[in-house]
Design a protein that fits this description.
Layout (H helix, E strand, L loop, with lengths): L12 H10 L1 E4 L1 H6 L5 H13 L8 H40 L8 H24 L9 H9 L10 H16 L15 H4 L1 H16 L3 E4 L8 E4 L2 E5 L1 H11 L4 E4 L1 H10 L7 H8 L1 H5 L3 E2 L2 E2 L15 H5 L9 E5 L2 E4 L25 E2 L2 E5 L15 E5 H13 L2
Parallel strand pairs: 1-2, 2-5
Antiparallel strand pairs: 3-4, 6-7, 6-8, 8-9, 10-11, 11-12
Helix pairs in contact: 3-12, 4-5, 4-9, 11-12
Length: 408
């Protein structure tokens, strides 16, 4: 039965070993661009890991095209958001004075304003120092240089304009029928080359496997349902249609789908490369830290940017514990609100500034624990994937908050 319904099963142990020993490794565009969001140590680790697979690397032409089209925008985005944050910090004390300076129930607003301005000056100084150390990507892009050397002679063929037009026509039909991948991009307004980008990448992978007779490990940070089989928002494996199409078009060659952190974890376990656990965790949450970050300083709509609105929720946090570096970060992960471990400060009398009524999905709370499901799947190892659960100890959080109330 396994042979007849292979798309529902993980790879056998022999197939799994064959995949990891011989497959070409293909990184999606989003993985290459995520290098610009990583801390320097994690970035170096990721590039080192990629070099560990240098003899197995291959890049579809479409991935290279998308990377070069978007890499400068991605490189400059965190720097521009840092400048924006600096401007907002500089204006914050004045905004608070204008909005709350005449509140009759604030006993000593001048003291509050002085404290806010002092905190703002400290933050601005740190941001100025950070800006002065930012690389000039317009002049030199070290990530581009590393990737250029890494993929020399390993780039797929470019499609002709005629072939692209054929794919656009095929893509319209596939997208209308919701055939993966790519149909979730159907409303993209950036042109057909980008609208059908995922499909182009997929077809180039199929052709490479068929032409060279090779297996493929595909590493993508895409989270959409047109790549992954989802259950209640959790990934349980790649879309079965993709497995069927790959086997059919390539003559039963193997393909494994991995998220970047899961790929590195397996490579670490197999001792193919050596990557620090801290790096894997950062890569796992790189989209949260770089794009979806909320903090005590507010909510971001620009990758890497934060505002200072949430300071209003808890003046005690501003005047007291925040100067000790206890900043609370609330982030978004796959439609669930979570508190990142090690970055939660609950020293405020008003917990709305930390957890709030909308910050935690009640379904994720268990007695004494705060749990979030990250659901990274490895379809090759298990038929239903191997979702990973990250559990945070809420008892200590509550204990700290109780202590802060007693000290008021």
């Amino acid at each position: 039965m396994r042979k007849a319904f292979y798309e529902y099963y993980g790879l056998s142990k022999d197939e799994y070993e064959k995949l990891w020993n011989n497959a070409l490794v293909v990184f999606d565009t989003n993985v290459l661009l995520s290098l610009y969001r990583l801390q320097l140590d994690a970035r170096a680790d990721m590039l080192s890991a990629m070099k560990g697979f240098k003899d197995h690397l291959w890049i579809p032409f479409q991935v290279g095209y998308e990377y070069h089209e978007r890499r400068l925008e991605e490189a400059l985005r965190p720097i521009e958001s840092l400048r924006s944050l600096n401007c907002r910090v500089a204006a914050f004390a004045k905004e608070i004075e204008d909005d709350y300076g005449k509140n009759p129930y604030i006993k000593d607003f001048k003291m509050i304003n002085r404290a806010l301005k002092s905190l703002g000056d400290k933050i601005s100084k740190q941001l100025d120092d950070s800006l002065s150390e930012c690389p000039n990507f317009m002049r030199e892009d070290t990530i581009l240089s590393e990737l250029t050397k890494l993929y020399e002679g390993k780039v797929g063929d470019k499609y002709s304009d005629e072939r692209l037009k054929e794919i656009f026509t095929i893509g319209e039909e596939r997208y209308n029928k919701k055939v993966p991948p790519g149909y979730k991009d159907t409303n993209k307004k950036t042109g057909d080359r980008h609208r059908f980008g995922d499909l182009i990448i997929w077809l180039q992978i199929l052709e490479k496997s068929k032409k060279d007779g090779c297996d493929i490990i595909f590493v993508t940070d895409d989270k959409k349902e047109d790549w992954w089989q989802l259950h209640n928002g959790d990934k349980i494996g790649p879309r079965r249609e993709l497995i069927i199409e790959f086997r059919k078009e390539t003559g039963n060659h193997l393909i494994g789908f991995y998220t970047p952190d899961r790929f590195l974890s397996v490579a670490n376990e197999r001792k193919t490369v050596s990557v620090k656990k801290k790096t894997i965790e950062e890569i796992k949450y790189s989209d949260i830290i770089g794009v979806g970050l909320k903090s005590l300083l507010g909510e971001s709509t620009v990758p890497g940017q934060v505002s200072m609105g949430c300071l209003l929720a808890s003046p005690y946090g501003v005047l007291g514990e925040s100067e000790k570096g206890n900043i609370s970060f609330m982030s978004r992960l796959d439609n669930e609100r979570i508190s990142l471990t090690g970055a939660v400060s609950t020293t405020f009398p008003n917990t709305m500034g930390v957890f709030g009524s909308s910050a935690i999905n009640p379904k994720t709370i268990k007695p004494g624990k705060l749990e979030t499901q990250s659901s990274i799947s490895e379809a090759e190892a298990l038929p239903t994937g191997d979702g990973l659960s990250s559990t945070f100890d809420a008892d200590k959080v509550i204990e700290k908050e109780d202590n802060s109330k007693e000290n008021e």
